[in-house]
Q: What sequence folds into this?
């Protein structure tokens, strides 16, 4: 963990391109090591009263956005007290084993109490709460409604950025370090080429998953003992859905379809898609409640990893973070937490050395190690569908996938397995925990008693039985 204002000399400036989650968490870390951190954000960032307004740079904010437990812990470390601030802004509390109805491969999983507790809220509230805290940091300067149009370089290092605000002429900002946090559409591969460097190779794994989301008011008189519903998508079936509670007494209901089985955005089609899920609960819920928004679609969900860690030449004083390095199929909820882990990795790298020489390459290599686990989880899951394209899966990964299928089949019978599954999903534990002897024994027992065959349900076939109650 870095100590405040560690070894790097004073009067140093860092520029962060992009003021979304990865950019803001990175900026907060940089304020421990640099005197001045300038965040350049293309969107116009509005004042507090308009915090619920969507902005063009993050079209994903229309959709359910879960911050995993590991991500929430890092957020609280970087901004002490922020989880309480989210609670004060009406973010709901969710105990993931007790308050969430989870339809697994073989049915509803048992509900029970645990310490897997987070706050759920809209992406906008989360972003706005972080921005408020960051803005209070006197080392931070925002350049909102300002676009980075290029990098400044002396051929060895990146020395700053070129920016443009509205119709004004371009301006240059010089900096000791420049960070790219501009997301999936990052221009860095193009900029590197223009500077005479090789662009990074990229690995793309695409399950052609689409989202359709709509916001609803939660009826005041509704009787329910849960805060979220997850109807997971199980190959070869292609459909799933989520009910996700956010501030202001609202639900975001998101339907997902894999293999180009995109959920429709017209009223009747959306309802029909919900009716075809493995449980009627989302369909029955939607029928009774009042929509607050149109239906929003999102289809750019491919996993895309840029291999900056493999480049033999990379400019000094330049870093790439967040979705600009690796974007995931969002259905596994890993993007913001991986961005938070990336910020912590940068903190460690900066704290370990007294100057910036070699930082860029060392950081990208370290970041790649951090990304490798969520990447393996997301792509491993996506390879369950024969329609998934790109990348390669090794024999080890295929065997691991078969083993995990057996683990997932135990989820509805074993609270221990379900809790472990959620702990891995929330990045509290590594996937190797699935090989603990106690879990291994349960898997072997299942295989040898021939219970390990999947139900092979397709869309429209309902596995649902009565909903589980919480067991004390
Ligand atoms: C549909 C969907 C659902 C998701 N759900 C989840 C979830 O449940 N949980 C989760 O953890 N993650 C989720 N994610 C992923 C999550 O949104 C991202 O991982 C997270 O926002 C971090 O991204 P980022 O900050 O790197 O980039 P982004 O959030 O994409 O932000 C990039 C920023 O850079 C700015 N920018 C771009 N170009 C320039 C430029 N030239 N100059 C200045 N500024 C620029 C943009 O305006 C934007 O603000 C989801 C993503 C999608 C698409």
A:
């Amino acid at each position: 963990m870095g100590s405040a204002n560690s070894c790097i000399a004073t009067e140093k400036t860092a520029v962060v391109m992009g003021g979304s989650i990865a950019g803001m968490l990175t900026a907060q870390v940089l304020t421990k090591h640099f005197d001045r951190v300038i965040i350049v954000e293309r969107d116009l960032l509005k004042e507090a009263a308009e915090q619920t307004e969507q902005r063009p740079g993050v079209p994903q904010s229309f959709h359910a956005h879960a911050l995993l437990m590991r991500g929430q812990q890092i957020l609280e470390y970087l901004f002490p007290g922020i989880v309480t601030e989210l609670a004060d802004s009406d973010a709901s509390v969710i105990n993931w084993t007790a308050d969430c109805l989870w339809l697994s491969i073989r049915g509803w999983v048992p509900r029970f109490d645990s310490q897997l507790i987070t706050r759920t809220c809209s992406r906008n509230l989360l972003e706005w709460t972080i921005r408020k805290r960051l803005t209070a940091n006197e080392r931070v300067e925002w350049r909102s409604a300002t676009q980075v149009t290029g990098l400044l370089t002396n051929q060895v290092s990146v020395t700053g950025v070129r920016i443009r605000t509205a119709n004004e002429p371009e301006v240059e900002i010089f900096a000791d370090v420049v960070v790219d946090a501009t997301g999936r559409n990052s221009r860095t591969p193009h900029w590197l080429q223009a500077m005479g460097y090789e662009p990074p190779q990229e690995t793309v794994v695409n399950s052609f998953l689409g989202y359709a989301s709509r916001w609803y008011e939660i009826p005041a008189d509704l009787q329910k003992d849960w805060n979220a519903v997850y109807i997971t998508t199980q190959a070869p079936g292609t459909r799933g859905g989520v009910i996700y509670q956010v501030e202001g007494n609202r639900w975001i209901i998101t339907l997902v379809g894999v293999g180009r089985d995109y959920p429709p955005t017209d009223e009747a089609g959306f309802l029909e898609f919900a009716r075809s899920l493995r449980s009627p609960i989302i369909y029955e819920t939607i029928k009774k409640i009042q929509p607050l928004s149109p239906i929003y679609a999102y289809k750019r969900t491919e996993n895309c990893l840029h291999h900056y860690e493999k480049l033999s030449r990379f400019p000094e004083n330049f870093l790439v973070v967040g979705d600009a390095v690796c974007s995931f199929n969002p259905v596994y909820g890993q993007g913001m937490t991986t961005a938070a882990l990336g910020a912590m990795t940068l903190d460690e790298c900066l704290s370990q050395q007294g100057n910036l020489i070699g930082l860029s390459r060392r950081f990208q290599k370290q970041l790649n190690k951090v990304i490798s686990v969520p990447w393996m989880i997301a792509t491993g899951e996506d390879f369950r569908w024969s329609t998934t394209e790109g990348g390669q899966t090794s024999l080890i990964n295929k065997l691991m996938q078969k083993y995990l299928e057996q683990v997932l089949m135990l989820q509805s019978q074993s609270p221990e397995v379900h809790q472990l599954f959620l702990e891995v999903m929330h990045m509290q534990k590594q996937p190797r925990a699935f090989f603990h002897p106690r879990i291994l024994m349960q898997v072997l027992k299942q295989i040898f008693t021939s219970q390990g065959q999947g139900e092979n349900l397709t869309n429209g076939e309902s596995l649902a039985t009565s909903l589980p109650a919480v067991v004390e």
Q: What stands out?
A: Residues 359-382 form the longest helix (24 residues).
